[in-house]
Amino acid sequence: xTEERKDKRRVAIVGGGVSxxxxxxxxxxxxxxxxxxxxxxxxxxxxxxxxxxTINDGEQKVDVDVGFMVFNHENYPNMTKWFxxxxxxxxxxxxxxxxxxxxxxxxxxxxxxxxGLIANKRQLLSPSFYSFLKDMHRFNSxxxxxxxxxxxxxxxxxxxxxxxxxxxxxxxxxxYYLLPMMAALxxxxxxxxxxxxxxxxxxxMCNHKMLQIFDRPQWKTVAGRSQEYTxxxxxxxxxxxxxxxxxxxxxxxxxxxTIYKLFTTNDKLVGDYDEIIFACHPPTAASILSNSQGFDDxxxxxxxxxxxxxxxxxxxxxxxxxxxxxxxxxxxxxxxNCIGKSNEILSHVSIGGNKVNKRGEAMEGGESxxxxxxxxxxxEKEDGEEKKVEAEEEVSLAGQTLEGTNGRMxxxxxxYYLNKLQNLKTNADVFVSLNPHEAPSPDKTHERLIMAHPxxxxxxxxxxxxxxxxxxxxxxxxxAGAWSGYGFHEDGCRSGFDxxxxxxxxxxxxxxxxxxxxxDKKDELMVIPPPKLALSTxxxxxxxxxxLTKIIRSLHYVLTEYLPITICRPIIVSFLRxxxxxxxxxxxxxxGSVITCGDASTPCGSTCGGxxxxxxxxxxxxxxxxKVALEYDLGLARSYMAGHFVIxxxxxxDKYNPIIRPSHLPDETNPILGDPxxxxxxxxxxxxxxxxxxxxxxxxxxHSYSNALTNASGLLISKVGSFFxxxxxxxxxxxxxxxxSLQNIHAHYDLSNDLFTSFxxxxxxxxxxxxxxxxxxxxxxxxxxxxxxxxxxxxAQIRKLDTLLSRxxxxxxxxxxxxxxxxGGLTIHAAKKYGCHVTGITLSVEQKALAEERVxxxxxxxxxxxxxxxxxxxxxxxxxxGKFDRVLSCEMIEAVGHEHLGEFFWAxxxxxxxxxxxxxxxxxxxxxxYETYLRSTDFINTIIFPGSCCPSxxxxxxxxxxxxxxxxEHIDNIGLHYARTLAEWRRRFNSNESTVRSLGFDDIFMRxxxxxxxxxxxxxxxxxxNCLILVFSRPGCRSLxxxxxSRCITQDIPLTDGEVKEWLKE
Length: 1066
Known about the structure:
single chain, seven-stranded mixed beta sheet, 39% helix
């Protein structure tokens, strides 16, 4: 044994599982002259998931593994080499799979031969069985294509649910094969399985050759069980350096010290160490650091949060001999057996369409979470007994049952057949079941234990990436575990080796030998990386296809992808180069090439309120060119929704216009969205060039379109596509009283109340422009003419409500009608502040439900009445004639439609008292573009607010005088305040992404909503869209006399530059 040296660095390894053992073995055997290694394991023996137990089988005792069971040479290269080094023997194993749903009545099949495939003969008559087989073949043939996308491609970030939906896979494929198999592989619930990143799943299946029929690996199991290798490593390290039953509870590091002191239970010091390898579960490491001294700074808090976000879930494990937890037919008995309930799986899946959301009910892109609420379980007492009920608040899964019919895996559980997996020769079959719906018979149960497994959510992937890039090895702290890969033994083994080799700078011995053998091909690898077989898998599957199939696929590619892109790309590039004359747009492609449009030397920032920096569009899929060519601005929107491109952030945050992105606010960039503020910059670039290229016009007739790329060279193919979009819009959009308006409102406002509360202000829930405290900043603080805002969104919305009621000259106790009351913000404010009797009408059932809850909470039920009814029907009632002193409508007029503007004013006059006042807040389109706006479609009226129309001021006045006697008396423009409001909504929406996703909304919706908010922000920020507060009354209305007071007519004396500077400081 090597003599100890005092100058050796001391390494503490927290956790004696495979990661800790592999790290310890490498440091001990390869660098024992430099490092002393100690392992601290909380349990009574080493191994972690390499867990062998001994069971009674009649008169004999049998060793069985209940965690790590199998491996293969191709996918477990480091483990295979390691086992060779320490002399571990192996045996061939079997890795067959079966799925049995509803006791075998719905489906029961196995991968073992034809008899296993049709274990339930009745499924031969089921169409869903053949859909499953067809889609399984398609999945195996095409899934690996996802892995070939660039790592920064947003389409590579999709969840399994999104992937199945977007690719059009059947519910039967998901329920009969993919989801049960995933639940078995990762010991995960159906919720976790569906939120599992698709790239993680497909990468695992591809690298393990599960996507091909031929050339699959031979699986192995350790002869003598996994205890053989754990005991050998323990013997090699020696008892002096192995501390079992010694959980580390905290560590301490003095200021400016490089030494860590480790403590176990009762604050007992176990030693001083230079380096710590956390080979335990990340939440355990987070708990240790949270209890430690010297880790209370902001950076340490970020590290702890990162560790906590790498999710683990407990699973109850039974080792038993009860065949009732296996498939009904023994023809289906396999090594891995997925047992489940089809209704539970399908209730989570809804790949073929959300059962709550009938097709076409939700706005485009909003189907994934339509009608969803945040559901949790709370406890109430009933008849002295506790009873669980559904509630509308978020809560963690920590208290959820692990097993049984309502357990974490209530949709599907897995039973391993150890006789097949581990070649057992026993009198009674031996099984291992995880989270079974029914516990095995007690007299057939050998042991029950609990193990935790990593859950590969999007949050887990982000956190482990951050951990690796930012914290790995910093200040002598290292982190290793199977969570760093796919969650299997090779991942844990490789992670431990990776940390050890980085710490000591010495490669694994089999890597070094390989370099010596191939000196002309020197490799800097320290550890064998996991295989990447995506391209070879696709080639293998293609080569096994029939010749006719290959020809059809090639022809399909040429006709549906290659030719359209080849034709459309030069057309759109030429179009953009002509359209963008000021500022610069860069198109950046997967191969690194860049196309530049515009002139950076003539920026357009001052024209439209943007900045002078280039806008870089990262194009991932050149189908982008086809979409824009065929659908123009709608094609641009749908291309972004599909993830074909994102906007890259500016490398220097100081280069942003501070009004658009204040420097103190966090960066919102992520792989799904790109830079959301970049979208605003893109739209401002388009607007600046559109308006810069337009000279003085006598009318709107010179404008060919109303969207952001107006007045570029004629793009015939795009005009054809736009015409068909417009034709479809005119034929399908209906704002009539007989039901069209109801359908349009339902599509947007009934998406989910919990969605809207995630980003609206908490006080009023107003879904309209706020009014901030604002002054014009002195030059050159943010550019000539730009407003600077202060105050919270909540304060600004209260200010807006007070302004509306002030313009209406509301008086105590008056009767008020709120048309389109939203979530009741204006109604509640008027009732509380003025004691008004308010009637609110809407077409949104969801809004009414939440608004009524809020009214009840405020105790205003005696003053407020809500009704779901069309405004025309309501105003036609005789009992409502001349009933209301004031009528207010806050951003409802946009849902009326141009053809029905006159009906609106007619309806209001029917219910307005003789001296009554109408106050309307309206988003308006400038007159110069209104005529062409009416002859086209855009992103807002087609996708976001179906059937909507933002009228021009002239159109409103024209409608009011043609069908009523109401006259415009007063006007305010708060458009710039709307830009600020939309930016704050976007920031809140993105910061609450986890809440939005918990409602079921997917990546597409996240992009849709960001596109919508930035699209509108750019319009208001550039002052090419307006938000007006309009006051109407009949001629001779004495109620409006106060608006003629001098204080209302004259403006306050403007602030001096010095006063503005003091205001900005405040």
